Amino acid sequence: MSVVTRFAPSPTGFLHIGGARTALFNWLFARHHGGTFLLRIEDTDRARSTDAAVEAILDGLKWLGLDWDGDAVSQFERRGRHAEVAHQMVASGHAYPCYASPEELEAMRAEQKAAGQPMRYDGRWRDRDPSEAPAGVAPVVRLKAPRDGETIVNDHVQGEVRVQNSQLDDMVLLRADGTPTYMLSVVVDDHDMNVTHVVRGDDHLTNTFRQVQIYRSMGWDLPEFAHIPLIHGADGAKLSKRHGALGVEAYRDMGYLPEALRNYLLRLGWGHGDEEIIPTERAIEVFDLGGIGRSPSRFDFAKLDNLNGHYMRLADDGRLTDLITPLIEAKLGAGIGDAGRDLLTRAMPGLKQRAKTLVELAESAQFYVAPRPLPVTGKAVDLLGVEGVALLTELAEELRPFDAWNAGEIEAKTRQFAENKGLKLGKVAQPLRAALAGSTVSPPIFEVAELLGKTETLARIADIAQPR
């Protein structure tokens, strides 16, 4: 059997983080088996579906690196096929037209509620002849669901799950205007697209019992099911925006790398031994549905930050420069040019060791390409008082005739200068950091001086001696 999975989002908003994980699991399972990963946009809710949301979903999947096979399918464009199946079910006796008016159904529910009964359709048109239909009422089409026995779903995650058929009613397949419902459309599309494995959130589990009945009414083979527990916040509560229930584009804007987010989402509810760092190639190699746990996973930004820091240290320096340059240019309000990009790329090995997000990386790198005079912030201001400025002015004169401009030689010369003054190296190096980086935090300051070059280093020291 060739594995076929699908991701089927509704385009009513962004690609949220739970949906991204569902897409990832489907993608990995298909790639692991050398199968097919399909994308279906479930846009039958025309009032809430938007083109902007479709684009956001496509962009989110592309950014995550989850490529789908073939073209994305619009469920709405297949509505004629869905209706055709509903009419086939009527012809075979597995569905029927229901002429109950909205007012009649509302009265039925009110009676059930008053009697303490479950509110569900009572089957009043289930066995009636359509010749009894009231004039002027357009019928819906309902599934003639089995009333006896039970429906059993053997789920890869949840195990064997059962429901008594008496708890399920005759759901609507076609609305009175002839448009198909979600429950019908999903089944028809999954069948027609030859989907072999339906991997989705466990909030769909109750839908599955109803959908199984449609498969059986049509005599179609069932796909295999895997219902994934939902993601909760770190406090165990249902995931909300404050926990991280954001669109994928928000994580991109917060400075996360797609490979880090893939690894993090993979470990949210799935495991393979003690492995935490699982690059995508390794994930494709080992992913299986048996590794999905039954308990809800908890979203933890601290773990995501640490994982992102790991992948940033592995990332190509030029790529990181390309990613942070727009952030720096937006902050500076000016371009940094090719020379600025080259400087950032050469500085990247030292910069990326400490940052956990691209936003942090951009903030820590900005001083390299900021225009002079460099702004000095926070505690760095205190280091550039009269004493600090005097020391650096003298140091600059010691360095000015110096030709061997590399970190080792600059450090040796500065250390000798400090010893001659009877000072520890830090008493000179810290003011130097404040002058060159504008703060008390930077990569090793002598590496910074080497990268800036002799002319720029001396110019920045000279700047701090000028009145501000």
From TrEMBL:
<keyword id="KW-0963">Cytoplasm</keyword>
<dbReference type="InterPro" id="IPR014729">
    <property type="entry name" value="Rossmann-like_a/b/a_fold"/>
</dbReference>
<comment type="function">
    <text>Catalyzes the attachment of glutamate to tRNA(Glu) in a two-step reaction: glutamate is first activated by ATP to form Glu-AMP and then transferred to the acceptor end of tRNA(Glu).</text>
</comment>
<dbReference type="GO" id="GO:0000049">
    <property type="term" value="F:tRNA binding"/>
</dbReference>
<keyword id="KW-0648">Protein biosynthesis</keyword>
<feature type="short sequence motif" description="'KMSKS' region">
    <location>
        <begin position="238"/>
        <end position="242"/>
    </location>
</feature>
<dbReference type="InterPro" id="IPR049940">
    <property type="entry name" value="GluQ/Sye"/>
</dbReference>
<feature type="domain" description="Aminoacyl-tRNA synthetase class I anticodon-binding">
    <location>
        <begin position="328"/>
        <end position="463"/>
    </location>
</feature>
<keyword id="KW-0030">Aminoacyl-tRNA synthetase</keyword>
<keyword id="KW-0067">ATP-binding</keyword>
<dbReference type="InterPro" id="IPR001412">
    <property type="entry name" value="aa-tRNA-synth_I_CS"/>
</dbReference>
<dbReference type="GO" id="GO:0005829">
    <property type="term" value="C:cytosol"/>
</dbReference>
<dbReference type="InterPro" id="IPR045462">
    <property type="entry name" value="aa-tRNA-synth_I_cd-bd"/>
</dbReference>
<dbReference type="InterPro" id="IPR020058">
    <property type="entry name" value="Glu/Gln-tRNA-synth_Ib_cat-dom"/>
</dbReference>
<dbReference type="GO" id="GO:0008270">
    <property type="term" value="F:zinc ion binding"/>
</dbReference>
<dbReference type="GO" id="GO:0005524">
    <property type="term" value="F:ATP binding"/>
</dbReference>
<feature type="domain" description="Glutamyl/glutaminyl-tRNA synthetase class Ib catalytic">
    <location>
        <begin position="3"/>
        <end position="305"/>
    </location>
</feature>
<feature type="short sequence motif" description="'HIGH' region">
    <location>
        <begin position="9"/>
        <end position="19"/>
    </location>
</feature>
<comment type="similarity">
    <text>Belongs to the class-I aminoacyl-tRNA synthetase family. Glutamate--tRNA ligase type 1 subfamily.</text>
</comment>
<dbReference type="InterPro" id="IPR004527">
    <property type="entry name" value="Glu-tRNA-ligase_bac/mito"/>
</dbReference>
<dbReference type="GO" id="GO:0004818">
    <property type="term" value="F:glutamate-tRNA ligase activity"/>
</dbReference>
<dbReference type="InterPro" id="IPR000924">
    <property type="entry name" value="Glu/Gln-tRNA-synth"/>
</dbReference>
<keyword id="KW-0547">Nucleotide-binding</keyword>
<dbReference type="InterPro" id="IPR033910">
    <property type="entry name" value="GluRS_core"/>
</dbReference>
<keyword id="KW-0436">Ligase</keyword>
<dbReference type="Pfam" id="PF00749">
    <property type="entry name" value="tRNA-synt_1c"/>
</dbReference>
<dbReference type="GO" id="GO:0006424">
    <property type="term" value="P:glutamyl-tRNA aminoacylation"/>
</dbReference>
<protein>
    <recommendedName>
        <fullName>Glutamate--tRNA ligase</fullName>
        <ecNumber>6.1.1.17</ecNumber>
    </recommendedName>
</protein>
<dbReference type="InterPro" id="IPR020751">
    <property type="entry name" value="aa-tRNA-synth_I_codon-bd_sub2"/>
</dbReference>
<comment type="subunit">
    <text>Monomer.</text>
</comment>
<dbReference type="Pfam" id="PF19269">
    <property type="entry name" value="Anticodon_2"/>
</dbReference>
<dbReference type="InterPro" id="IPR008925">
    <property type="entry name" value="aa_tRNA-synth_I_cd-bd_sf"/>
</dbReference>
<feature type="binding site">
    <location>
        <position position="241"/>
    </location>
    <ligand>
        <name>ATP</name>
    </ligand>
</feature>
